[in-house]
Design goal:
The chain is α+β, with helices and mostly antiparallel strands and 124 residues long.
């Protein structure tokens, strides 16, 4: 019997796939603001959130999903004070029927302001 799990892409220098499909569900790794060469993108929370959300969109696309298929996001912010500015950018990626979400403040593993992961549902 063939596995129902399929992984897509790899993260720069990290032993993790960008996305994985398990049956009708797609899971992404947490996305941080890295450019195409794997360099951290600086800037304020708005600029970093835009890069993260574009990376998230690309990770979902690699597994055949779009932002409209996202049912749950988990978001980490390095500063509580960035919450409103983060929301302003995040909301533009989910203009209708936004997914459920958890957002917490945490020290991140790289020197950035935001990380986002998503879970999507798209039947095969």
């Amino acid at each position: 019997m063939a596995s129902q799990k399929e992984c897509f892409g790899t993260s720069a220098g990290i032993p993790a796939s960008v996305a994985a499909r398990a049956g009708d569900y797609v899971y992404t790794s947490g996305q941080v603001p890295l450019d195409a060469d794997g360099n951290l993108v600086g800037g304020d929370i708005g600029a970093q959130t835009k890069v993260v959300m574009e990376r998230l969109k690309a990770a979902l696309a690699s597994a055949g999903c779009g932002m409209e298929d996202v049912v749950k996001c988990t978001c980490w912010l390095s500063e509580v004070s960035d919450f409103q500015a983060f929301n302003a950018v995040y909301a533009t990626y989910f203009p209708n029927n936004p997914p459920v979400r958890s957002t917490v403040r945490a020290d991140l593993m790289v020197d950035c302001k935001v990380e986002v992961e998503a879970f999507a549902y798209k039947p095969l």
